[in-house]
Write the structure tokens for this entry.
Amino acid sequence: METIAKVVPQELHASCHDLKSAQTWMSEICGPHGLKVHANRPLQFKHSGSVLQSRSTTIGYVEYGTDVSILVNEPTPLHSFSISLPITGEQELSVDGKHLLSNADVGTILVPKVSQELVIAGNCRKMLVSMSHAAVSKVLEELIQRPLSQPLTFSPTMDATSGETASWWRIVRHLLSEMACSNSLYRNLHLAAELENTLIRGLLLAQPNNYSEELHSSREGKTPQYLLKARQFILDTAKEDVNLEQIEQVAGVSRFKLYEGFKLYFGLTPLAYRKKHRLEQVRREILRSGSQTNISCIAMDWGFMHLGRFSIEYKKQFNELPSETLRRHRQNR
């Protein structure tokens, strides 16, 4: 009788008040780095998570309990890409002369072999994903089907509110939730490797990097032209009252072929794709305009004339009401 291979991904748990111990622990996760405490408050370091089966990707939560700085430079290069998103509190990344704020709406990426400093507030608790440089580079080479000509670097901030990057963060949240369950299917040996590959591929495809153009060209080249034309038309006319017949005319194919193509390549029907885009743009404008926001006006400007239905669809998409997005954004600021 065949035995189904199951494993418990290596579980990670650490808690300490000692600076050296915290630094050593996180060096094993992400690579060598400096750690400095700013305030007089004692360190209350906590890290928990799981290592996916290949032992190169970890996902979990980390907090320091007091203001600290993570220092990365030539003598202390990371061996992994360290991607984090605050659940509470804030952090600030300094890289290439820029100071970039990170909160619940914006994540950060620390990359190997780049001088950078991450200042983490004492009240900051965040999701942390660490992917080895070797594993990410290998997957990238598989995608572009050639050896890398230069080291991979990412844009240092990662949107968690809209677009493909927000989708990536939703995957991370889902994985963290599932990994917390002792009987989760994700603990299956074979599935864990696929999950890790999905995380790495998703990061490469969603987050801007110095290979994005090549990745985009490769992906777009496989998408039928009629779908690209229809999608661009949907994006260009997102604020207008465009019907399905007009989208069909632009695509130049039957409704059945249009629907099947959208589901296969984009995962949604044409109208569902437009609605998702509209909702993402509404959220973006709410976050951009802050205290000056009139949510109803923004929603109507993007074609949502029934405000009650709009609120329901918004919550279904982002797990919070538009007013909650605005309130949380004001509190963060």
Residues 25 and 83 are 17 Å apart (CA to CA).
